[in-house]
Amino acid sequence: MSKKILSLPGDGIGPEIVGEAVKVLTCLQDDFGLDIEMTEGLVGGAAYDAAGHPLPEATLDLAHDADAVLLGAVGGPKWESLDISVRPEKGLLGLRAELGLFANLRPAILYPQLAAASTLRADVVSGLDILIVRELTGGIYFGKPRGVETLPSGERRGVNTLVYTESEIDRICRVAFDIAMKRDKRVCSVDKANVLECTELWREVAIKAAADYPEIELSHMYVDNAAMQLVRAPKQFDVMVTTNMFGDILSDCAAMLTGSIGMLPSASLDADGKGMYEPIHGSAPDIAGKGVANPLATILSVAMMLRYSLDAPAHAERIEAAVSAVLDTGLRTPDIFSEGAERAGTRQMGDAVVSALRAV
Ligand code: IPM
Ligand code: MG
Asked: For labelling alongside 292, which of 156, 267, 283, 346 has CA 20 to 30 A away?
């Protein structure tokens, strides 16, 4: 039976980059026998403009019905003054929560062809291969109480709550351990157990879960130190597992080690392997509509989708090989450009990946 893929281009550069990723999927469908059905929906600011809500019921129904979701990006200055409950970001957070996508996998891999694009010295980053496993449906992003209240004195007070249950911590740690078993078997759990009781519990539960994985070498690091170590000596890490907010911050940092945030895909998975796939960069309103955004992170997100949700690892490998072949040719969007390379726009990059696919 064919698998259903829902694409949600969203805002900013979203439609441009998702367009290129859809081209890649269509090529796999037409030339390589990938059995899929694709539909498209609205999310984020685009959905707010068309339907008055960043996550319309119709989109949620399509998402529930799909085997996998491909998302571009949400948000932009146009919607920043809206009430927080209907801002584009709520569309994304709502999808994560409603679909139970608690496990966010964010690989940071340095393509050898791009070593010169990193702001760090090549010897510090060459060979980098880190996977950040970020908890995605709990923590301070969703904890209650939350909001801004006015005190009797008239002064306002803002509140957000960091909260994790043992089972939420246990299941994300196990995702990290399972994946690490297929890698270097090292997991660093990142917390702030010296200050926050909630993450003291995190550390305790991580240690308990690790007892079922005798081959895993589990270490612990405070988040401030982890941020420093990521830029000091990033190759010390294999898999990192952490809370929603720490993972948000550390994954941007890790992404930049690889030269461009425009290269990195992500997967957000539920307990049964259903997932939403998106580049880790945002909607980049400053370059939206200019045809210069790098589509490779979205195309590589399709590869993750094929591997984790569609059980089609051979197609995933095809895409990854095609991306690497395109980088070998020296074609570069502005974000990964370095001296001597050939400049390309969004469409040219997508077309090059499709040609490389056909040539593999
Ligand atoms: C991310 C983004 C989102 C997050 C925003 C857009 C809500 O920064 O996916 O990392 O904070 O999770
Ligand atoms: Mg982020």
From this structure: 267
Indicate the pTM of the whole model: 0.94
- The percent helix, strand, coil of the chain (3-state, each to 5) is 50, 20, 30
Question: Distance between CA 320 and CA 70 in Å, rounded?
Answer: 17
Bridge partners for 130 per DSSP:
108
145 cis-preceded (ω within 30 degrees of 0): yes
Give me Rg for the CA atoms of the chain: 20
C-alpha 132 to ligand 1 mean position (Å): 14
Exposed/middle/buried for residue 158 (C-beta within 10 Å: 0-12, 13-18, 19+): exposed
Digit-coded pLDDT (tens) for 63-84: 999 999 999 999 999 999 999 9
- Residue 223 near residue 241 (C-beta atoms within 8 A): no
Q: Which atom of ligand 1 is nearest to the CA of 104?
A: 9
Residue 225 corresponds to which tokens in the numbers above? 């130190």
- Within its chain, how far is the Cα of 293 from the centroid? 17
> Under DSSP, is residue 162 helix (H, G, I), strand (E, B) or coil?
coil
Closest by Cα among 276, 272, 352 to 319: 352
For residues 267 and 301, is the Cβ–Cβ distance under 8 A?
yes
Does residue 317 line the site of ligand 1, with CB under 6 A?
no
Q: Do 106 and 264 touch, CB atoms closer than 8 A?
A: yes
Is the CB of residue 304 less than 8 Å from the CB of residue 266? yes
Tokens representing 246 are 């720490």
Ligand 1 near 252 CB (within 6 A): no
- Of 150, 240, 122, 144, the closest CA to residue 186 belongs to 240
Q: Do 343 and 337 touch, CB atoms closer than 8 A?
A: yes
What mean pLDDT is predicted for residues 107-119?
89
Q: How many CB atoms lie within 10 A of CB 140?
A: 17
